[in-house]
Amino acid sequence: MTWNLAGDRPIWLQLTEQIQLRILTGEYQAGERLPSVRELAAQAAVNPNTMQKALTELERSGLLYAQRTSGRFITQDGERIREMRCRMAQGETRQFLARMEELGFSAGEILELVRRQVEAEEGKAEEDSDDGTE
User: What beta strand segments (E) does 14-129 contain?
Assistant: First the structure.
C-alpha cells in the first residue's frame, strides 16, 4: 500500500481521500477491520493525530464505524459505498468535461473521443487476452 502525499493540500485531507478510494475500489472490503491509527500513521509516515483526523472524517461520512475496544471497521452498507462511488465518478466526469471544454471540444466531439478511446481500450484488452498477457 503506497501513500502518495503532496505538500500542496492538507495531509489529513489527502489521507481521507486515499482511504476513501481504497474503500470504494474494494481494496478495503466492507466489514473489514482497519489497522490501528498508529499502524496506518506509520505506513503513511505521518503523525498519528493527522491520521486520526482523517479517520474521524471517514466516520463522519459513514464509510467507517468504530467499535469501542475492537477498532475501526469499513461500513457493511453496500448501498452507501455504491452511492459514494457514483458521486466520486460524477465529480471526475465533471472535471474531465470542464477540461475538454477548455480545450475547445463540443459535447458531441467529447462523446466521439470517449467512444473511440473505449473501443481502443476494449480492443487492447482483447489482444492482451488472446496473447494470454492480461
Answer: 64-67, 71-74
The closest alpha carbon to 21, from 53, 63, 62, belongs to 63
pLDDT band at 132 (very low <50, low <70, confident <90, very high): low
Which helix (DSSP H) or strand (DSSP E) does residue 64 occupy? strand 64-67
Domain residue ranges of the chain, discontinuous segments joined by +: 11-77, 79-131
Pairwise CA distance, residues 132 & 124, whole Å: 12
Q: 59-87: per-residue pLDDT in tens?
A: 999 999 999 889 999 999 999 999 999 99
Q: How buried is 105 (Cβ within 10 angstroms: 0-12 exposed, 13-18 middle, 19+ buried)? A: middle
- Topology classification of domain 11-77: Arc Repressor Mutant, subunit A (1.10.10)
The answer on pLDDT for 125 being more than 60 is yes
d(C-alpha 121, C-alpha 48), whole Å: 41
Give CA–CA dist 105/97, Å, rounded.
Answer: 9
SS3 for 4? coil
